[in-house]
Every structure is written in C-alpha cells, then in structure tokens.
Amino acid sequence: MISLTVASRANPAIVLPVVLSAAYAMRHGLRVRVVFEDVVLLKSRNSLEVVTAGGDCIVGEAILDFFYRAMNDCFAREQTEVDEWLRRCASLVPDDYKALCKPVEELESHLTLRSYMVGYSLTLADIVIWGALRGNPAIVGLRRNSLNIVRWFSFIEDTNDWITETVAGFQSRARQRKAAASAAGANYNISLGNTENGIVCRFPPEPSGYLHIGHAKAALLNSYFAHEYGARKGILICRFDDTNPSKESREFQDSILHDLTLLGVVPDRISYSSDYFQQMYEACVELIKAGKAYADNTVSEVMRDQRRRGIASVCRTMSIDKSLAGFEAMKSGTEDGRQWCIRAKISVNDVNKALRDPVIYRCNHQPHHRTGTAWKIYPTYDFCTPFMDSIEQVTHALRTNEYRDRNAQYNWMQDAMGLRRVEIWDFSRLNFVRTVLSKRKLTSIVESGAVWGWDDPRMPTVRGVRRRGCTISALRQFILEQGPSQNIVNMDWTRLWAINKKHIDPIAARYTAIPKAKVVTAWVDGIDANSVAEMPKHKNPGLGMKRVVFGKEILLGQDDARLLKEYEVITDELGKRNCYRGIHRLSNRRYIPSSAETRSTI
User: Fold this and answer.
1) Banded pLDDT at 72 (limits 50, 70, 90)
2) What are the start-end ranges of the H helices in 295-377?
3) Which helix (H) or strand (E) holds 138?
4) Could you give the C-alpha distances from 76 to 23, 469, 579, in angstroms and in order?
C-alpha cells in the first residue's frame, strides 16, 4: 500500500493538488493511505511525503510524477502533455499577483475551445491544475476574470462529485483548527512573510526599570513567534537598549533577565546596543555627509514648537561641514557641543509628525553603566532600533502599535543608511483599567515612596503581581490568550485573577483564618477537653491531611459575629442538633448554645 503524509498547515496550493491526485489514484485502483499531520512541515522538512509499497520515500514535486506513472500502468494517456502541465502546476503556487499573471494568461489561452487540459477526457493534469487554482486564494481574482478558466473550472467540479467531497474533507481540518484557536482566545495565524528559514525576533527592553506585564506580553509574543511559529525554529534576541545612561543601571538589567527566566522566556542570544556605539556613530557621520542629517542647536522648546507647526529649523540648510563640526563637538563633550543635537532630514511638514526631522543623536554626560565615560553622545530610539534590527539579522520586528506612526520613519532610516529592511508587525498594547503602565510614571511612584518598591504587590510589574499571588503559569496563559491582535482593548484584572484561581485551586491546601482585628471570642458548653482530628487539606487526597483542634473556645470574625441574632436557632451541618447563637456547618459535634456569657461577649 502507498502511504501519503500531508502537513495540513502547509500552503493549500501545494498540498491540495497532491491530496486530489491521491483521491484520483484511489478511484483508479491504487491503494493509498492518506495521513494528515497538524504541522507546517513534516520531519523531513517537506510538506508532503509518499512511502511506496516497496518502502521508497518520495517528497516534493516528484510525488505528482509518481502518481501519474503508477496510473499509467492502467491506462495510456498523452504522456508528454500531461508531464508538461504537472511541471507547470508549480507556477500557480506563488501568492504574488504579478508572478501569477503570466501563467494564468497562458492557461486561459490553452483552454480556448478545450473542455479538458489534455485530450478528450479527465487526466491528472486537470486534477492538479484545478487543485492549484482552488488552493491559492491569491489567484481567485485572476481566475474569475478569465472566461475559459471559469468555464473549465466549473465543468471539472460539476462532473466530478468526488472532488468536492475531497476538498470539503480537507477544509474541515482547517476549520477545526481555527475553531480550536478561537476557543483558546487568540489567533496566531497572522500570515507573516519570509518565514521559510526561521524567524529572528528581538525583545529590546530598556534597563531603566523592572519588567511590567506590558513588557511581559512583548517578551512572550516575540518568544512564541521565534520558537514556535513557522516551519523552522527561529532565534530570539534579548537586546538591552542601553542608550540613556541617565535612567539605566545594572540592577535593572539583571532584574529583567531574572524576570524573563521566571516567564519561561529563554533568549538564544543577549546583546547590547552599547556594543555598537562606534558603528552607529559612523553610520550617523555617513548620513550627515550624504545630506540626510544635520546638526541643530535650536533650543528644545523652540524645536518642539517648530515641529508641531511644520516650520523648518534655521540649521536645516547649514553646510555639511558645519554639521560634521557640530557632531564632533558633541562627541568631544565640549560646552558648545552640549548645545547641539543631530536630526534626520526627512520632512518639515509631513502629516505624519514622526517624519518631521526627528532627533537621532543627543548629548548625555552621565556615566554609562557599561561603557563608563567613553561616550558623551547617544543615539535615540528612532535611530538605534532600525540600525540594530538590520545588522543583527532580525527578520520581523514585533512591537506595540503605539509605534505605528513611526513605521514609515523606521523604514526611512534603514533605506537612508543602506541597510536591509526588516518586516514590522505591530500588536495592541496590553492596557488595564485604572492601571498605570508607563515606566516613567511607575518610576516616579517608586521614587516618591508611595510603594515599597518595584515588587510591591500593588505594582503591575511581573514581581509585583507575583507577590500578590499570581502564578507565572497563569500570567503566561493570560498574556498568550491575548495573542498578537491589533485591536486595542482595556483589560480588567478580574480576568487574570479568574485564570489564576483555576491554576491555584487544584493545588492549594485549605486552611481557615479570620481577621485579627476585633476578633470575637465564644465558648462552647459541654466540652471538657480539647481534641485533635485529622482533616483533608483538599478534596484532592494527594495534598495530604491537616490537624484541626476542637475545643471549648472559638474565635469568630467580627463580620460573622454581627450576623448572629439573639435567640436565633442554629442547626449543625447534619440538621440534628438545635442551639441558640451558633456557627452553622462548624461540625456535627460542636455548637454554641445561648448563654449570658456568650451574649455579653458577642
């Protein structure tokens, strides 16, 4: 028997023609077992694999030729023409509109006055070409505008019911997969391009504070797409964007690495922007020499107003030599150099204000926690990020959509420096109602002494929510359920704590406690001595037993005590014993009868 294994997550334009070919072969006497695996690529790194009756393994495009040769033993066809169309099937696979135009035009011309691809009856050529057209969504528009293709396509479908049944079975697997993803709360099928050789993502935290849950989302999503998305396992880079020595420290750097470990995020490589200061300096010099950047000593308040109003700085037309001299003064750390900054020469009045000559280098004389006082100038985020992403071979820059206005600026920087472009995918920022997630504001809260520190249970940091009782597994699940969606939503904390409860409930032992403030003491008559009983910690017996003491003296919380009414009749949990003033469901052996002493105490 022939065995065909199909990667059901692979490109339908590739696998559907082969699946239909297998069904066609079975209708003509071949015994074929079709197995679907829920993966993008099989272990052989192919989307399709055939094992013949003799044990030979066939992969890729050779599978179509194998099926045709196997069926040729049964009936002779115009072999040369069929072989030609089996080869040309690959030209209908790309998802690029321009690449599809020519093969579709050739197919349209070929089908003029023809009911079948070859000869006067159905052949494997009809099956594979029909399957490629059916499996490639990019070809739908071209197909509908081609009269001969529409006629032939409908004719093949209408005269072969088994084709419709095979396609329906193939599509049902995709629907089940999407339904499962929807039930899980997130859709990770965002159709990232250029993933064949693996994805290289980066998580670029600034070491100026502890990770909060917004950073945790970025870290987990980048980790997911680097290690679990696409055909091959990719690479995750943790890059410390240490370009602002005024706010950064080694303490924050170490805490970020520790928190990433807690989250289960394991970078394949750790890098530092500060390791590339020399290269970035040289790249900025080249921008100035090319007339794509200039030095500006406009006062910051005036510069901000000019950018807002779309007014050019007087320094914009300054000569290249003067701009280079200003940049050198900045690098030397002179008093005059402190007055300058470097701006990219993009636009003065673009509608997108992120393109209005952004600052790309500025002075800072604070010692750097890694490079010390070696540098007096530092690149801004707008310059550093596109530079680093490109030279570190990042393939996909995943970041929150608060930077969407900067995407055009990001691309401009890479083009201006002659660097490889990096594909951008932006996802929604994780927002919580009544919660501050701005690192600047969180830093202010910590420095003001309003909280104990970054790990205060009231803080939305990874360490803060952990101290408040949130498990790391619950936090991971909550964040991954949000997925890479671009929809902006304000989340409620109750959702996180509901998930956390599901994680904790099966493993948390049960103990009894009451608030210590204003505790109420009651005494039970009829008990001469204390006794100890072994009680289960949880309905799960695996958590063991606990020792519970039963005695004359019982402590009640103030709120519970206030609910007791004078002469109220209370029964035990079995409903067999009556008493006044009692605790319901305490024990079938323990009760609090009415007494002057009890009443006065309560």
Assistant:
1) low
2) 300-309, 320-332
3) none
4) 19, 73, 97
Q: Which helix (H) or strand (E) holds 360?
A: strand 359-363
| pLDDT tens-digit series, residues 157-172 | 999 989 988 888 887 7
DSSP-assigned letters across all residues of 6-51: EETTS-HHHHHHHHHHHHHHHTTT--EEEEEESSSS-TTSSSEEEE
CB 346 within 8 A of CB 312: no
Task: Decide: 265 and 220 in contact? Cβ < 8 Å.
Answer: yes
Of 191, 198, 204, 209, nearest in space to 235 by CA: 198
Biggest distance spanned by C-alpha atoms of the chain:
109
Residue 397 near residue 422, CB atoms below 8 Å: yes
**Could you give all domains of the chain from N- to C-terminal order, each with its CATH number?**
2-181 (1.20.1050.130), 200-431 (3.40.50.620), 519-585 (no CATH)
φ/ψ of 246, rounded to 5, equals -65, -25
Residue with token string 């209908």: 92
CA 332 to chain centre: 42
CA dihedral for 351, 357, 361, 366, sign (positive or negative):
negative
The Cα 18–Cα 4 span in angstroms is 9
Q: How far apart are CA 126 and CA 121, in angstroms?
A: 9
Active site residues: 206, 429, 439
The pLDDT assigned to 601 comes to 35
pTM for this entry: 0.63
Q: How far, in whole angstroms, is CA 476 from its chain's centroid?
A: 11
pLDDT per residue as tens digits for the range 440-458:
999 999 999 999 999 999 9
Nearest in space to 3 (alpha carbons), one of 47, 55, 46, 41: 55
Instruction: Enter the DSSP assignment of 508.
Output: P
Q: Please give the structure tokens belonging to residue 478.
A: 């909550």
- List the one residue out of 382, 309, 390 whose CA is nearest residue 342: 382
- Contact of 284 with 360, CB cutoff 8 Å: yes
201 pairs with which residues across the strands? Answer: 236
User: Which residue do the tokens 């949990």 mark?
Assistant: 573
**Cα–Cα distance measured from residue 274 to residue 266, given in angstroms and rounded to the nearest whole number:** 22
Per DSSP, 421 falls in state P
Q: In whole angstroms, give the CA distance from residue 521 to residue 515.
A: 13
